[in-house]
């Protein structure tokens, strides 16, 4: 029987190592793509504009000295719940309390007014 | 006599083929995820753009002035609203590519004495389930609006302007 010629062992081993490295590199690329997806999703989910808008609207009433308007709080409350799925509340007073909660993000503030 | 000198080469070939298949699968699945990520970034930019445009329209030019958004809704000025909203969306630096046409539907939601009602303020095109985002803005109304006849305007009122925005 002929003797097995094992002169090529090094080449075989290098081939294995390189392909395993390739698999790992592909895994890393895969992960990095997921990171970009989750980042943009979390930015989309964060209600920055909603809170700024709520605050601006409350300030509008504060400047016209109308925070005790009988319609404002019920309107804000029901429309928010129905159209935005968020719970909002404010308490007029020396310091205005502003509360916002959409299930993911909760925001509470006590402000003297101003922007 | 069977010559088995090539055994090692055969095993190497099979192993290499397996690894190429696994790598190709990983690369293909990566590309699919990249497409989804792309969609999210476009949504994100569109939503930000819409919110910014509405915020600018809701900001008065000077202290004690009414905001443009209030003026448009109180005066039923649909065309002015359309022109200004589109102008803000399409504001470009002058260099770079043109980003394409925007379509949107604007609806006013308000609460009368019994229920929540809506009024379609502007409809630029019918919505056929394109990839769209919704942006909303509270609008302060200190005078009555002919669009909302069942609303009690004896005091200041707040309505919600909801804009569904998409690219053509």
Mean pLDDT of chain A: 88
Relative strand content of chain A: 5-15%
Helix proportion of residues of chain A, in percent?
Answer: 55-70%
How many strands, what sense, and barrel or not for the largest sheet of chain B?
Answer: 4 strands, antiparallel
Structural class by sheet pairing and helices of chain A: alpha+beta
Q: What gyration radius of chain A follows from the Cα positions, in whole Å?
A: 30 Å
Mean residue pLDDT of chain B:
87
Q: Which ranges of chain B are low-confidence, i.e. pLDDT below 50, for 5 or more consecutive residues?
A: none
What is the molecular shape of chain A?
A: rod-shaped
Descriptors for this entry?
heterodimer; A: alpha+beta; 3 helices; 3 strands; rod-shaped; B: 168 residues; 4-stranded antiparallel sheet
What is this structure, in a nutshell?
Chain A contains 3 helices and 3 strands; from the N terminus they run αααβββ. With 115 residues, chain A is of the alpha+beta class.
Structure description:
The complex is a heterodimer of chains A (115) and B (168). Chain A has 115 residues and is an alpha+beta fold. Chain A folds into two domains: 9-42; 46-111, no CATH class. Chain A is built from three helices and three strands; from the N terminus they run H-H-H-E-E-E. Chain A has helices at residues 9-45, 48-63, 72-84; strands at residues 87-91, 96-101, 106-111. In chain A, strands 1-2-3 form a three-stranded antiparallel sheet. Chain B is of the alpha+beta class. Chain B has one domain (42-167). Helix content of chain B is 42%, strand content 23%. Chain B contains three helices and four strands. Chain B has helices at 7-57, 68-74, 78-89; strands spanning 102-111, 116-123, 132-141, 157-167. In chain B, a hairpin with a 4-residue loop joins strand 1 (102-111) and strand 2. The longest helix of chain B is centred in the N-terminal third of the chain and has 51 residues, at 7-57. Chain B is elongated. At the A-B interface, helix 1, helix 2 and helix 3 of A face helix 1, strand 1, strand 3 and strand 4 of B.
């Amino acid at each position: 029987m002929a003797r097995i010629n094992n002169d090529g062992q090094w080449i075989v081993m290098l081939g294995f190592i390189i392909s395993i490295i390739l698999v790992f590199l592909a895994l890393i690329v895969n992960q990095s793509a997921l990171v970009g997806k989750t980042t943009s999703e979390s930015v989309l989910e964060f209600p920055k504009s909603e809170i700024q808008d709520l605050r601006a609207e409350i300030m509008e009433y504060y400047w016209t000295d109308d925070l005790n308007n009988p319609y404002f709080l019920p309107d804000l409350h029901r429309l928010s719940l129905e159209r935005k799925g968020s719970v909002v509340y404010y308490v007029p007073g020396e310091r205005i309390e502003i509360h916002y909660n959409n299930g993911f993000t909760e925001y509470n503030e006590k402000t003297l007014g101003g922007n | 006599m069977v010559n088995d000198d090539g055994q090692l080469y055969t095993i190497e070939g099979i192993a290499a083929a397996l690894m190429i298949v696994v790598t190709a699968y990983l690369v293909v699945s990566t590309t699919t995820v990249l497409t989804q990520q792309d969609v999210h970034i476009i949504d994100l930019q569109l939503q930000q753009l819409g919110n910014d445009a509405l915020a600018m329209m809701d900001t008065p030019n000077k202290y004690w002035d009414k905001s443009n958004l209030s003026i448009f809704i109180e005066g039923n000025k649909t065309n002015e609203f359309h022109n200004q909203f589109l102008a803000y969306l399409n504001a470009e630096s002058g260099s770079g590519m043109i980003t394409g046409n925007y379509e949107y539907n604007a609806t006013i939601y308000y609460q009368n004495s019994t229920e929540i009602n809506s009024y379609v303020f502007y409809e630029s095109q019918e919505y056929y389930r394109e990839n769209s985002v919704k942006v909303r803005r509270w609008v302060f109304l200190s005078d009555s609006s002919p669009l909302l006849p069942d609303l009690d305007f004896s005091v200041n009122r707040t309505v919600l302007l909801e804009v569904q925005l998409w690219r053509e």
